[in-house]
Amino acid sequence: MDERILLAGAGGQGALTIGKFIAELLMSKHRVTWFPSYGAEVRGGTAHCHVVISDDEIANPVVEEATALLMMNQPSYLRFRQRLQSDGVLVTNSSMIVLDPPTPASVVVEVAASELASKMGDIRVANMIMLGALNQVKPLMTVDELNGMVDKVLGTSPSKARISDLNKQAFLVGQKEAAVEL
Questions:
Q1: For all residues of the chain together, what is the average pLDDT?
Q2: Which residue in 51, 84, 110, 182 has the most C-beta neighbors within 10 A?
Q3: Three-class SS of residue 35?
Q4: What is the rounded CA–CA span in Å between residue 36 and residue 108?
């Protein structure tokens, strides 16, 4: 495996969280680095992270040429679109991104993640919708693996059950939306 994924959005949109989910889920099978950037960006600027997954040693955790971009908002798209390989995968939150200027990609998946999350009752699950969409195009994890990670991170107590279940549902919504796009 050789994947170089760059995930970005406004601080608080959860791009770093889903990058961490990917890294933690795959570290038992491959070599993985997760390199976050969340300095001043936490206050609403572009927060991003680099996830490199490889069967070989990883010499550089910074994604210069991405095999996949997952973009949550327009400033992130404009900042990172040039890093996508021409044969790469672009997954965008079409609720917040207009592909202007376009970027070369072999696969472009536009998912209205913010809109779908609002309809689900909690805008905070937009990131999980995006993760589901990415996973549909680039199968990185099984649904069971993702569900286990959500339980690990959010807990399984009755007080956390609603948000945990909503995150799991959001992942499935993202997969379904991406399947329709393809």
A1: 93
A2: 51
A3: strand
A4: 24
